[in-house]
Amino acid sequence: MTQPFSKPAGRLAFTTDGYVVNPIFFPGGDIGKLAVCGTVNDLAMNGARPLYLSLSAIIEEGFLLSELERIMQSVKKATEEAEVSIIAGDTKVVNRGQADKLFITTSGVGIISPGIDISGANARAGDKVLLSGTIGDHGIAIMSQREGLRFSMTLESDCAPLNKLVSQMLEGSSSIHCLRDPTRGGLATTLNELARQSKVGIVVEEAKISVKEEVKAVCELLGLDPIYVANEGKLVAVVDSADANKILARMKKNNYGRDAAIIGEVTNEHPGKVVMKTKLGPSRIVDMLSGELLPRIC
Amino acid sequence: MTQPFSKPAGRLAFTTDGYVVNPIFFPGGDIGKLAVCGTVNDLAMNGARPLYLSLSAIIEEGFLLSELERIMQSVKKATEEAEVSIIAGDTKVVNRGQADKLFITTSGVGIISPGIDISGANARAGDKVLLSGTIGDHGIAIMSQREGLRFSMTLESDCAPLNKLVSQMLEGSSSIHCLRDPTRGGLATTLNELARQSKVGIVVEEAKISVKEEVKAVCELLGLDPIYVANEGKLVAVVDSADANKILARMKKNNYGRDAAIIGEVTNEHPGKVVMKTKLGPSRIVDMLSGELLPRIC
Protein backbone atom coordinates (compact mmCIF):
# COMPACT_ATOMS: atom_id res chain seq x y z
CA MET A 1 0.00 0.00 0.00
CA THR A 2 1.39 3.39 -0.94
CA GLN A 3 0.14 6.62 0.52
CA PRO A 4 1.05 10.16 -0.52
CA PHE A 5 1.50 12.62 2.31
CA SER A 6 2.00 16.33 2.55
CA LYS A 7 5.47 17.70 2.96
CA PRO A 8 6.50 19.41 6.20
CA ALA A 9 9.29 21.96 6.65
CA GLY A 10 12.77 20.84 7.76
CA ARG A 11 14.99 17.85 7.08
CA LEU A 12 13.38 14.44 6.92
CA ALA A 13 14.53 11.31 8.77
CA PHE A 14 13.80 7.71 7.76
CA THR A 15 14.27 4.59 9.87
CA THR A 16 13.39 0.88 9.94
CA ASP A 17 13.48 -1.99 12.45
CA GLY A 18 12.35 -5.59 12.50
CA TYR A 19 10.72 -6.98 15.64
CA VAL A 20 10.96 -10.67 16.48
CA VAL A 21 10.46 -10.48 20.25
CA ASN A 22 9.68 -13.74 22.04
CA PRO A 23 7.20 -14.02 23.72
CA ILE A 24 5.02 -11.71 21.63
CA PHE A 25 2.98 -10.77 24.73
CA PHE A 26 4.93 -9.72 27.82
CA PRO A 27 4.23 -7.70 30.98
CA GLY A 28 4.03 -4.05 29.96
CA GLY A 29 3.49 -4.59 26.26
CA ASP A 30 3.55 -6.79 23.20
CA ILE A 31 5.27 -6.97 19.82
CA GLY A 32 2.89 -4.36 18.39
CA LYS A 33 3.50 -1.72 21.04
CA LEU A 34 7.22 -2.48 20.89
CA ALA A 35 7.35 -2.04 17.10
CA VAL A 36 5.62 1.34 17.21
CA CYS A 37 7.62 2.63 20.19
CA GLY A 38 10.91 1.37 18.76
CA THR A 39 10.49 3.23 15.49
CA VAL A 40 9.10 6.34 17.17
CA ASN A 41 12.11 6.34 19.52
CA ASP A 42 14.63 5.79 16.70
CA LEU A 43 13.33 8.95 15.06
CA ALA A 44 13.11 10.91 18.33
CA MET A 45 16.74 10.05 19.21
CA ASN A 46 17.79 11.85 16.03
CA GLY A 47 15.85 14.93 17.07
CA ALA A 48 13.14 14.12 14.53
CA ARG A 49 9.44 14.53 15.22
CA PRO A 50 7.89 11.20 14.14
CA LEU A 51 5.06 11.66 11.63
CA TYR A 52 4.31 8.58 9.54
CA LEU A 53 4.88 4.89 10.10
CA SER A 54 4.56 1.80 7.93
CA LEU A 55 3.92 -1.65 9.33
CA SER A 56 4.63 -4.96 7.63
CA ALA A 57 3.59 -8.21 9.31
CA ILE A 58 4.83 -11.73 8.54
CA ILE A 59 2.38 -14.14 10.09
CA GLU A 60 2.67 -17.89 10.65
CA GLU A 61 -0.28 -19.89 9.32
CA GLY A 62 -2.57 -20.82 12.21
CA PHE A 63 -1.76 -17.71 14.28
CA LEU A 64 -4.93 -16.75 16.10
CA LEU A 65 -6.86 -13.85 14.61
CA SER A 66 -7.89 -12.85 18.14
CA GLU A 67 -4.22 -12.43 19.08
CA LEU A 68 -3.53 -10.46 15.91
CA GLU A 69 -6.44 -8.17 16.75
CA ARG A 70 -5.16 -7.71 20.30
CA ILE A 71 -1.74 -6.76 18.91
CA MET A 72 -3.24 -4.36 16.37
CA GLN A 73 -5.22 -2.73 19.20
CA SER A 74 -2.01 -2.06 21.06
CA VAL A 75 -0.41 -0.78 17.83
CA LYS A 76 -3.32 1.64 17.60
CA LYS A 77 -3.01 2.71 21.23
CA ALA A 78 0.72 3.33 20.88
CA THR A 79 0.30 5.38 17.69
CA GLU A 80 -2.37 7.46 19.42
CA GLU A 81 -0.12 8.13 22.39
CA ALA A 82 2.81 9.04 20.14
CA GLU A 83 0.53 10.98 17.77
CA VAL A 84 1.83 9.25 14.64
CA SER A 85 -0.12 7.72 11.75
CA ILE A 86 0.43 4.37 10.10
CA ILE A 87 -0.07 5.18 6.42
CA ALA A 88 1.29 2.07 4.71
CA GLY A 89 1.07 -1.61 5.54
CA ASP A 90 1.50 -5.17 4.29
CA THR A 91 0.83 -8.68 5.52
CA LYS A 92 2.33 -11.96 4.38
CA VAL A 93 1.33 -15.37 5.64
CA VAL A 94 3.83 -18.24 5.59
CA ASN A 95 3.19 -21.92 6.25
CA ARG A 96 3.15 -23.31 9.75
CA GLY A 97 6.71 -23.79 11.00
CA GLN A 98 8.18 -21.26 8.54
CA ALA A 99 7.99 -18.36 11.02
CA ASP A 100 7.54 -18.17 14.80
CA LYS A 101 4.01 -16.77 15.20
CA LEU A 102 4.49 -13.14 14.14
CA PHE A 103 7.25 -10.80 13.03
CA ILE A 104 6.63 -7.07 12.54
CA THR A 105 8.77 -4.57 10.65
CA THR A 106 8.03 -0.89 11.14
CA SER A 107 9.55 2.01 9.24
CA GLY A 108 9.12 5.65 10.08
CA VAL A 109 9.46 9.08 8.57
CA GLY A 110 9.97 12.16 10.73
CA ILE A 111 10.94 15.76 10.48
CA ILE A 112 14.01 17.40 12.00
CA SER A 113 13.31 21.07 12.70
CA PRO A 114 15.85 23.61 11.48
CA GLY A 115 18.59 24.28 14.06
CA ILE A 116 18.48 20.85 15.67
CA ASP A 117 21.78 19.02 15.41
CA ILE A 118 21.83 15.84 17.48
CA SER A 119 24.43 13.20 16.80
CA GLY A 120 26.42 10.55 18.64
CA ALA A 121 29.53 12.46 17.57
CA ASN A 122 28.57 15.73 19.31
CA ALA A 123 29.59 15.01 22.95
CA ARG A 124 32.17 17.48 24.27
CA ALA A 125 34.36 17.49 27.38
CA GLY A 126 32.43 19.05 30.26
CA ASP A 127 29.01 17.91 29.01
CA LYS A 128 26.70 16.18 31.47
CA VAL A 129 25.25 12.69 30.91
CA LEU A 130 21.55 12.31 31.78
CA LEU A 131 19.59 9.07 32.08
CA SER A 132 15.78 9.19 32.00
CA GLY A 133 15.04 6.41 34.54
CA THR A 134 15.67 2.87 35.79
CA ILE A 135 17.57 0.42 33.62
CA GLY A 136 17.08 -3.20 32.59
CA ASP A 137 13.29 -3.33 32.93
CA HIS A 138 12.53 -4.51 29.38
CA GLY A 139 15.21 -7.17 29.12
CA ILE A 140 14.47 -8.65 32.53
CA ALA A 141 10.69 -8.58 31.97
CA ILE A 142 11.16 -10.55 28.73
CA MET A 143 13.65 -12.95 30.24
CA SER A 144 11.50 -13.59 33.32
CA GLN A 145 8.49 -14.30 31.11
CA ARG A 146 10.50 -16.59 28.91
CA GLU A 147 12.13 -18.51 31.75
CA GLY A 148 8.90 -18.72 33.73
CA LEU A 149 10.30 -16.79 36.69
CA ARG A 150 7.62 -15.42 39.03
CA PHE A 151 7.94 -12.62 41.55
CA SER A 152 5.85 -11.20 44.34
CA MET A 153 5.92 -7.88 42.48
CA THR A 154 5.05 -7.58 38.79
CA LEU A 155 8.03 -6.55 36.72
CA GLU A 156 6.98 -4.77 33.54
CA SER A 157 8.81 -3.77 30.39
CA ASP A 158 9.43 -0.01 30.19
CA CYS A 159 8.39 -0.04 26.50
CA ALA A 160 7.14 3.51 25.75
CA PRO A 161 7.17 6.20 23.06
CA LEU A 162 9.67 8.87 24.09
CA ASN A 163 9.00 11.47 21.40
CA LYS A 164 7.08 13.81 23.69
CA LEU A 165 9.74 13.60 26.39
CA VAL A 166 12.30 14.50 23.73
CA SER A 167 10.27 17.40 22.37
CA GLN A 168 9.89 18.77 25.91
CA MET A 169 13.64 18.43 26.45
CA LEU A 170 14.38 20.19 23.17
CA GLU A 171 12.02 23.10 23.79
CA GLY A 172 13.91 26.28 23.08
CA SER A 173 17.24 24.65 23.74
CA SER A 174 20.09 23.80 21.38
CA SER A 175 22.24 22.43 24.19
CA ILE A 176 21.32 18.76 23.70
CA HIS A 177 24.26 17.21 21.89
CA CYS A 178 23.49 13.48 21.85
CA LEU A 179 20.36 11.42 22.43
CA ARG A 180 20.20 7.65 22.35
CA ASP A 181 17.88 4.94 23.63
CA PRO A 182 19.86 2.15 25.30
CA THR A 183 18.12 -0.87 23.70
CA ARG A 184 20.13 -3.97 22.74
CA GLY A 185 23.41 -3.97 24.71
CA GLY A 186 21.97 -1.68 27.38
CA LEU A 187 23.33 1.50 28.94
CA ALA A 188 26.94 0.31 28.85
CA THR A 189 26.90 -0.25 25.09
CA THR A 190 25.20 3.09 24.39
CA LEU A 191 27.73 5.02 26.50
CA ASN A 192 30.58 3.24 24.74
CA GLU A 193 29.12 4.06 21.32
CA LEU A 194 28.86 7.74 22.25
CA ALA A 195 32.42 7.81 23.66
CA ARG A 196 33.78 6.24 20.48
CA GLN A 197 31.79 8.34 18.04
CA SER A 198 32.60 11.59 19.84
CA LYS A 199 36.21 10.55 20.63
CA VAL A 200 35.76 11.53 24.29
CA GLY A 201 35.83 9.75 27.62
CA ILE A 202 32.70 9.27 29.72
CA VAL A 203 32.67 8.90 33.51
CA VAL A 204 29.48 7.70 35.24
CA GLU A 205 28.68 7.10 38.88
CA GLU A 206 27.18 3.72 39.71
CA ALA A 207 25.28 5.24 42.65
CA LYS A 208 23.35 7.56 40.31
CA ILE A 209 22.07 4.76 38.07
CA SER A 210 18.68 3.46 39.26
CA VAL A 211 17.88 -0.22 39.07
CA LYS A 212 14.60 -1.64 40.36
CA GLU A 213 14.89 -4.20 43.16
CA GLU A 214 13.24 -6.93 41.04
CA VAL A 215 15.66 -6.28 38.18
CA LYS A 216 18.60 -6.41 40.59
CA ALA A 217 17.32 -9.69 42.03
CA VAL A 218 16.92 -11.41 38.64
CA CYS A 219 20.28 -10.08 37.47
CA GLU A 220 21.99 -11.52 40.56
CA LEU A 221 20.19 -14.80 40.10
CA LEU A 222 21.25 -15.11 36.46
CA GLY A 223 24.68 -13.48 36.73
CA LEU A 224 23.79 -10.50 34.54
CA ASP A 225 24.86 -6.88 34.88
CA PRO A 226 21.86 -4.54 34.45
CA ILE A 227 23.97 -2.01 32.56
CA TYR A 228 24.05 -4.49 29.66
CA VAL A 229 20.33 -5.30 29.75
CA ALA A 230 17.98 -3.84 27.10
CA ASN A 231 15.61 -0.92 27.73
CA GLU A 232 12.74 0.14 25.48
CA GLY A 233 11.54 3.32 27.18
CA LYS A 234 14.69 5.05 28.39
CA LEU A 235 17.07 7.56 26.91
CA VAL A 236 20.56 8.84 27.50
CA ALA A 237 21.20 12.52 26.79
CA VAL A 238 24.53 14.29 26.60
CA VAL A 239 23.96 18.00 27.20
CA ASP A 240 25.80 21.25 27.77
CA SER A 241 26.64 21.40 31.50
CA ALA A 242 25.21 24.93 31.80
CA ASP A 243 21.75 23.65 30.84
CA ALA A 244 21.88 20.22 32.47
CA ASN A 245 19.75 21.08 35.50
CA LYS A 246 17.18 22.92 33.41
CA ILE A 247 16.85 19.96 31.05
CA LEU A 248 16.70 17.54 34.01
CA ALA A 249 13.84 19.54 35.50
CA ARG A 250 11.94 19.35 32.20
CA MET A 251 12.49 15.59 32.02
CA LYS A 252 11.13 15.07 35.52
CA LYS A 253 7.86 16.69 34.52
CA ASN A 254 7.22 13.93 31.95
CA ASN A 255 5.98 10.59 33.25
CA TYR A 256 8.70 8.77 31.28
CA GLY A 257 11.41 10.99 32.79
CA ARG A 258 10.24 11.26 36.39
CA ASP A 259 13.24 9.22 37.67
CA ALA A 260 15.74 11.07 35.48
CA ALA A 261 19.18 11.82 36.90
CA ILE A 262 22.53 13.26 35.95
CA ILE A 263 24.66 10.13 36.01
CA GLY A 264 28.03 11.41 34.83
CA GLU A 265 30.01 13.65 32.57
CA VAL A 266 32.17 13.80 29.48
CA THR A 267 35.93 14.17 29.77
CA ASN A 268 38.95 14.60 27.54
CA GLU A 269 40.69 11.79 29.40
CA HIS A 270 40.62 8.17 28.16
CA PRO A 271 38.90 9.00 24.81
CA GLY A 272 36.66 6.23 23.51
CA LYS A 273 36.38 4.66 26.97
CA VAL A 274 33.69 4.60 29.64
CA VAL A 275 34.70 4.54 33.30
CA MET A 276 32.33 3.84 36.18
CA LYS A 277 32.95 5.07 39.73
CA THR A 278 31.61 2.13 41.72
CA LYS A 279 29.61 2.41 44.92
CA LEU A 280 32.48 0.75 46.77
CA GLY A 281 34.96 3.41 45.67
CA PRO A 282 37.27 2.22 42.93
CA SER A 283 36.65 3.01 39.25
CA ARG A 284 36.38 0.36 36.54
CA ILE A 285 36.32 0.40 32.79
CA VAL A 286 32.88 -0.46 31.35
CA ASP A 287 33.28 -2.22 28.03
CA MET A 288 30.79 -2.75 25.21
CA LEU A 289 28.74 -5.89 25.25
CA SER A 290 30.40 -8.55 23.14
CA GLY A 291 28.00 -11.03 21.60
CA GLU A 292 24.31 -11.00 22.37
CA LEU A 293 23.04 -11.31 25.93
CA LEU A 294 19.58 -12.47 24.95
CA PRO A 295 18.26 -13.40 21.51
CA ARG A 296 14.90 -12.04 20.37
CA ILE A 297 14.71 -9.37 23.06
CA CYS A 298 13.09 -6.97 20.56
CA MET B 1 19.53 2.98 11.84
CA THR B 2 18.08 6.41 11.16
CA GLN B 3 19.27 8.67 8.40
CA PRO B 4 18.28 12.28 7.78
CA PHE B 5 17.81 13.23 4.14
CA SER B 6 17.21 16.44 2.25
CA LYS B 7 13.72 17.40 1.28
CA PRO B 8 12.67 17.46 -2.37
CA ALA B 9 9.82 19.50 -3.92
CA GLY B 10 6.39 17.91 -4.38
CA ARG B 11 4.22 15.49 -2.43
CA LEU B 12 5.89 12.54 -0.75
CA ALA B 13 4.83 8.90 -1.01
CA PHE B 14 5.63 6.14 1.51
CA THR B 15 5.24 2.39 1.01
CA THR B 16 6.21 -0.95 2.60
CA ASP B 17 6.20 -4.62 1.64
CA GLY B 18 7.40 -7.83 3.22
CA TYR B 19 9.07 -10.46 1.02
CA VAL B 20 8.92 -14.13 1.93
CA VAL B 21 9.42 -15.62 -1.54
CA ASN B 22 10.29 -19.33 -1.67
CA PRO B 23 12.78 -20.27 -3.08
CA ILE B 24 14.91 -17.23 -2.24
CA PHE B 25 16.94 -17.74 -5.44
CA PHE B 26 15.00 -18.22 -8.67
CA PRO B 27 15.66 -17.81 -12.40
CA GLY B 28 15.78 -14.09 -13.13
CA GLY B 29 16.31 -12.89 -9.57
CA ASP B 30 16.29 -13.52 -5.86
CA ILE B 31 14.55 -12.20 -2.75
CA GLY B 32 16.87 -9.16 -2.64
CA LYS B 33 16.21 -8.01 -6.19
CA LEU B 34 12.51 -8.70 -5.70
CA ALA B 35 12.34 -6.61 -2.51
CA VAL B 36 14.00 -3.60 -4.13
CA CYS B 37 12.00 -3.82 -7.38
CA GLY B 38 8.73 -4.38 -5.52
CA THR B 39 9.08 -1.26 -3.42
CA VAL B 40 10.41 0.83 -6.32
CA ASN B 41 7.43 -0.30 -8.41
CA ASP B 42 4.89 0.41 -5.63
CA LEU B 43 6.12 4.00 -5.60
CA ALA B 44 6.32 4.30 -9.38
CA MET B 45 2.71 3.06 -9.78
CA ASN B 46 1.60 6.08 -7.73
CA GLY B 47 3.48 8.40 -10.05
CA ALA B 48 6.20 8.88 -7.44
CA ARG B 49 9.89 9.02 -8.25
CA PRO B 50 11.49 6.54 -5.79
CA LEU B 51 14.30 8.14 -3.77
CA TYR B 52 15.11 6.33 -0.54
CA LEU B 53 14.63 2.76 0.63
CA SER B 54 14.99 0.99 3.95
CA LEU B 55 15.73 -2.72 4.24
CA SER B 56 15.07 -4.93 7.25
CA ALA B 57 16.19 -8.57 7.19
CA ILE B 58 15.01 -11.40 9.47
CA ILE B 59 17.53 -14.19 9.15
CA GLU B 60 17.33 -17.80 10.32
CA GLU B 61 20.31 -18.92 12.39
CA GLY B 62 22.63 -20.99 10.20
CA PHE B 63 21.78 -19.16 6.98
CA LEU B 64 24.94 -19.06 4.89
CA LEU B 65 26.81 -15.74 4.93
CA SER B 66 27.82 -16.42 1.32
CA GLU B 67 24.14 -16.54 0.31
CA LEU B 68 23.41 -13.36 2.27
CA GLU B 69 26.28 -11.63 0.47
CA ARG B 70 24.99 -12.84 -2.89
CA ILE B 71 21.55 -11.44 -2.06
CA MET B 72 22.97 -8.12 -0.87
CA GLN B 73 24.94 -7.90 -4.13
CA SER B 74 21.72 -8.20 -6.08
CA VAL B 75 20.07 -5.64 -3.77
CA LYS B 76 22.95 -3.30 -4.64
CA LYS B 77 22.63 -3.99 -8.37
CA ALA B 78 18.87 -3.37 -8.33
CA THR B 79 19.24 -0.09 -6.40
CA GLU B 80 21.87 1.05 -8.89
CA GLU B 81 19.63 0.28 -11.84
CA ALA B 82 16.66 2.04 -10.21
CA GLU B 83 18.88 4.89 -8.97
CA VAL B 84 17.61 4.71 -5.40
CA SER B 85 19.57 4.66 -2.15
CA ILE B 86 19.09 2.39 0.84
CA ILE B 87 19.55 4.78 3.76
CA ALA B 88 18.25 2.73 6.70
CA GLY B 89 18.54 -0.93 7.61
CA ASP B 90 18.19 -3.53 10.32
CA THR B 91 18.94 -7.23 10.78
CA LYS B 92 17.51 -9.67 13.28
CA VAL B 93 18.60 -13.28 13.68
CA VAL B 94 16.15 -15.88 15.00
CA ASN B 95 16.88 -19.45 16.07
CA ARG B 96 16.97 -22.28 13.56
CA GLY B 97 13.43 -23.32 12.67
CA GLN B 98 11.88 -19.99 13.73
CA ALA B 99 12.02 -18.49 10.22
CA ASP B 100 12.49 -20.01 6.76
CA LYS B 101 16.00 -18.86 5.76
CA LEU B 102 15.43 -15.15 5.08
CA PHE B 103 12.60 -12.63 5.06
CA ILE B 104 13.15 -9.05 3.82
CA THR B 105 10.94 -6.03 4.39
CA THR B 106 11.61 -2.93 2.31
CA SER B 107 10.02 0.48 2.71
CA GLY B 108 10.39 3.38 0.33
CA VAL B 109 9.96 7.11 0.14
CA GLY B 110 9.40 8.87 -3.17
CA ILE B 111 8.34 12.20 -4.56
CA ILE B 112 5.25 12.91 -6.64
CA SER B 113 5.89 15.90 -8.90
CA PRO B 114 3.28 18.66 -8.95
CA GLY B 115 0.55 18.04 -11.55
CA ILE B 116 0.74 14.27 -11.45
CA ASP B 117 -2.53 12.67 -10.39
CA ILE B 118 -2.51 8.91 -10.82
CA SER B 119 -5.06 6.79 -9.02
CA GLY B 120 -6.97 3.57 -9.46
CA ALA B 121 -10.12 5.70 -9.36
CA ASN B 122 -9.22 7.83 -12.39
CA ALA B 123 -10.20 5.55 -15.30
CA ARG B 124 -12.85 7.12 -17.60
CA ALA B 125 -14.99 5.67 -20.37
CA GLY B 126 -13.10 5.82 -23.67
CA ASP B 127 -9.65 5.43 -22.04
CA LYS B 128 -7.30 2.83 -23.48
CA VAL B 129 -5.77 0.02 -21.41
CA LEU B 130 -2.07 -0.64 -22.02
CA LEU B 131 -0.03 -3.62 -20.83
CA SER B 132 3.77 -3.41 -20.84
CA GLY B 133 4.59 -7.01 -21.88
CA THR B 134 4.04 -10.74 -21.40
CA ILE B 135 2.18 -12.01 -18.35
CA GLY B 136 2.73 -14.76 -15.81
CA ASP B 137 6.53 -14.97 -16.06
CA HIS B 138 7.28 -14.42 -12.37
CA GLY B 139 4.67 -16.75 -10.93
CA ILE B 140 5.46 -19.57 -13.32
CA ALA B 141 9.24 -19.17 -12.87
CA ILE B 142 8.78 -19.49 -9.08
CA MET B 143 6.35 -22.37 -9.35
CA SER B 144 8.54 -24.27 -11.83
CA GLN B 145 11.55 -23.85 -9.56
CA ARG B 146 9.56 -24.98 -6.55
CA GLU B 147 8.00 -27.98 -8.23
CA GLY B 148 11.24 -28.98 -9.91
CA LEU B 149 9.81 -28.60 -13.41
CA ARG B 150 12.47 -28.37 -16.12
CA PHE B 151 12.12 -26.97 -19.65
CA SER B 152 14.20 -26.91 -22.78
CA MET B 153 14.02 -23.11 -22.61
CA THR B 154 14.88 -21.19 -19.45
CA LEU B 155 11.88 -19.42 -18.03
CA GLU B 156 12.87 -16.39 -16.00
CA SER B 157 11.00 -14.12 -13.62
CA ASP B 158 10.32 -10.70 -15.12
CA CYS B 159 11.31 -9.03 -11.81
CA ALA B 160 12.49 -5.51 -12.74
CA PRO B 161 12.40 -1.90 -11.54
CA LEU B 162 9.84 -0.03 -13.65
CA ASN B 163 10.43 3.52 -12.41
CA LYS B 164 12.33 4.62 -15.50
CA LEU B 165 9.70 3.17 -17.81
CA VAL B 166 7.08 5.11 -15.83
CA SER B 167 9.04 8.36 -15.92
CA GLN B 168 9.42 7.99 -19.70
CA MET B 169 5.68 7.37 -20.02
CA LEU B 170 4.89 10.41 -17.89
CA GLU B 171 7.19 12.77 -19.76
CA GLY B 172 5.26 15.90 -20.54
CA SER B 173 1.95 14.06 -20.37
CA SER B 174 -0.89 14.31 -17.89
CA SER B 175 -3.00 11.78 -19.77
CA ILE B 176 -2.01 8.74 -17.69
CA HIS B 177 -4.94 8.12 -15.37
CA CYS B 178 -4.09 4.81 -13.66
CA LEU B 179 -0.91 2.78 -13.25
CA ARG B 180 -0.67 -0.55 -11.50
CA ASP B 181 1.71 -3.51 -11.45
CA PRO B 182 -0.21 -6.78 -11.67
CA THR B 183 1.58 -8.73 -8.92
CA ARG B 184 -0.37 -11.13 -6.65
CA GLY B 185 -3.61 -12.07 -8.38
CA GLY B 186 -2.21 -11.18 -11.82
CA LEU B 187 -3.63 -9.08 -14.63
CA ALA B 188 -7.21 -10.17 -14.00
CA THR B 189 -7.19 -8.98 -10.39
CA THR B 190 -5.56 -5.65 -11.27
CA LEU B 191 -8.12 -4.94 -14.01
CA ASN B 192 -10.95 -5.79 -11.62
CA GLU B 193 -9.52 -3.49 -8.95
CA LEU B 194 -9.34 -0.61 -11.44
CA ALA B 195 -12.88 -1.26 -12.72
CA ARG B 196 -14.24 -1.27 -9.17
CA GLN B 197 -12.29 1.74 -7.93
CA SER B 198 -13.17 3.83 -10.99
CA LYS B 199 -16.74 2.45 -11.23
CA VAL B 200 -16.30 1.70 -14.93
CA GLY B 201 -16.29 -1.38 -17.11
CA ILE B 202 -13.15 -2.68 -18.80
CA VAL B 203 -13.09 -4.72 -22.01
CA VAL B 204 -9.88 -6.48 -23.03
CA GLU B 205 -9.03 -8.64 -26.03
CA GLU B 206 -7.44 -11.98 -25.24
CA ALA B 207 -5.56 -11.91 -28.56
CA LYS B 208 -3.70 -8.74 -27.52
CA ILE B 209 -2.38 -10.23 -24.26
CA SER B 210 1.03 -11.84 -24.76
CA VAL B 211 1.93 -15.03 -22.93
CA LYS B 212 5.23 -16.81 -23.46
CA GLU B 213 5.03 -20.36 -24.82
CA GLU B 214 6.71 -21.81 -21.72
CA VAL B 215 4.25 -20.00 -19.44
CA LYS B 216 1.33 -21.28 -21.53
CA ALA B 217 2.69 -24.82 -21.36
CA VAL B 218 3.10 -24.83 -17.56
CA CYS B 219 -0.29 -23.20 -17.09
CA GLU B 220 -1.96 -25.87 -19.21
CA LEU B 221 -0.09 -28.59 -17.34
CA LEU B 222 -1.19 -27.25 -13.95
CA GLY B 223 -4.64 -25.99 -14.90
CA LEU B 224 -3.83 -22.33 -14.28
CA ASP B 225 -4.97 -19.26 -16.19
CA PRO B 226 -2.01 -16.90 -16.85
CA ILE B 227 -4.19 -13.84 -16.29
CA TYR B 228 -4.22 -14.78 -12.58
CA VAL B 229 -0.49 -15.46 -12.31
CA ALA B 230 1.81 -12.90 -10.61
CA ASN B 231 4.11 -10.54 -12.48
CA GLU B 232 6.96 -8.52 -10.96
CA GLY B 233 8.10 -6.40 -13.90
CA LYS B 234 4.93 -5.47 -15.76
CA LEU B 235 2.49 -2.62 -15.55
CA VAL B 236 -1.03 -1.81 -16.64
CA ALA B 237 -1.75 1.79 -17.65
CA VAL B 238 -5.12 3.38 -18.28
CA VAL B 239 -4.61 6.45 -20.48
CA ASP B 240 -6.49 9.05 -22.44
CA SER B 241 -7.31 7.50 -25.83
CA ALA B 242 -5.97 10.55 -27.69
CA ASP B 243 -2.48 9.92 -26.28
CA ALA B 244 -2.54 6.10 -26.20
CA ASN B 245 -0.40 5.57 -29.30
CA LYS B 246 2.12 8.20 -28.24
CA ILE B 247 2.48 6.61 -24.81
CA LEU B 248 2.69 3.14 -26.37
CA ALA B 249 5.54 4.32 -28.61
CA ARG B 250 7.42 5.66 -25.57
CA MET B 251 6.94 2.38 -23.73
CA LYS B 252 8.33 0.36 -26.63
CA LYS B 253 11.57 2.34 -26.48
CA ASN B 254 12.23 1.04 -22.95
CA ASN B 255 13.55 -2.51 -22.61
CA TYR B 256 10.84 -3.32 -20.03
CA GLY B 257 8.11 -2.06 -22.36
CA ARG B 258 9.29 -3.40 -25.70
CA ASP B 259 6.36 -5.86 -25.92
CA ALA B 260 3.80 -3.28 -24.78
CA ALA B 261 0.36 -3.32 -26.38
CA ILE B 262 -3.03 -1.70 -26.17
CA ILE B 263 -5.10 -4.57 -24.82
CA GLY B 264 -8.48 -2.96 -24.32
CA GLU B 265 -10.54 0.00 -23.30
CA VAL B 266 -12.72 1.49 -20.61
CA THR B 267 -16.48 1.60 -21.03
CA ASN B 268 -19.53 2.93 -19.22
CA GLU B 269 -21.19 -0.46 -19.62
CA HIS B 270 -21.05 -3.13 -16.89
CA PRO B 271 -19.40 -0.84 -14.27
CA GLY B 272 -17.09 -2.71 -11.86
CA LYS B 273 -16.77 -5.65 -14.25
CA VAL B 274 -14.04 -6.84 -16.62
CA VAL B 275 -15.02 -8.55 -19.87
CA MET B 276 -12.63 -10.41 -22.14
CA LYS B 277 -13.23 -10.92 -25.85
CA THR B 278 -11.82 -14.41 -26.32
CA LYS B 279 -9.83 -15.55 -29.33
CA LEU B 280 -12.65 -17.93 -30.22
CA GLY B 281 -15.19 -15.13 -30.42
CA PRO B 282 -17.49 -14.98 -27.40
CA SER B 283 -16.92 -12.64 -24.49
CA ARG B 284 -16.61 -13.79 -20.88
CA ILE B 285 -16.55 -12.06 -17.54
CA VAL B 286 -13.13 -12.11 -15.88
CA ASP B 287 -13.51 -12.20 -12.12
CA MET B 288 -11.04 -11.36 -9.37
CA LEU B 289 -8.92 -14.15 -7.99
CA SER B 290 -10.53 -15.61 -4.92
CA GLY B 291 -8.08 -17.08 -2.42
CA GLU B 292 -4.39 -17.32 -3.13
CA LEU B 293 -3.11 -19.16 -6.18
CA LEU B 294 0.38 -19.69 -4.82
CA PRO B 295 1.68 -18.95 -1.34
CA ARG B 296 5.04 -17.17 -0.91
CA ILE B 297 5.18 -15.97 -4.52
CA CYS B 298 6.75 -12.70 -3.36
Quick overview of this protein structure:
In chain A, 28% of the residues lie in helices and 28% in strands. Chain A contains seven helices and 14 strands. In chain A, the strands form three sheets. Chain A has a seven-stranded mixed beta sheet with strand order 9-11-8-12-10-13-14. In chain A, strands 2-7-5-6 form a four-stranded mixed beta sheet, with helices on one face. A two-stranded antiparallel sheet of chain A has the order 3-4.
Structure, described:
The structure is a homodimer of 298-residue chains. Chain A has 298 residues and is an alpha+beta fold. The first copy, chain A, is 28% helix and 28% strand. The first copy, chain A, has 7 helices and 14 strands. In chain A, the strands form 3 sheets. Chain A has a 7-stranded mixed sheet. In chain A, strands 2-7-5-6 form a 4-stranded mixed sheet, covered by helices on one side. The first copy, chain A, has a two-stranded antiparallel ribbon with strand order 3-4. The longest helix of chain A is centred in the first third of the chain and has 18 residues. Chains A and B meet through strand 1, strand 2, strand 5, strand 6 and strand 7 of A and strand 1, strand 2, strand 5, strand 6 and strand 7 of B. Strand 1 of chain A pairs antiparallel with strand 2 of chain B, so a sheet runs across the interface.
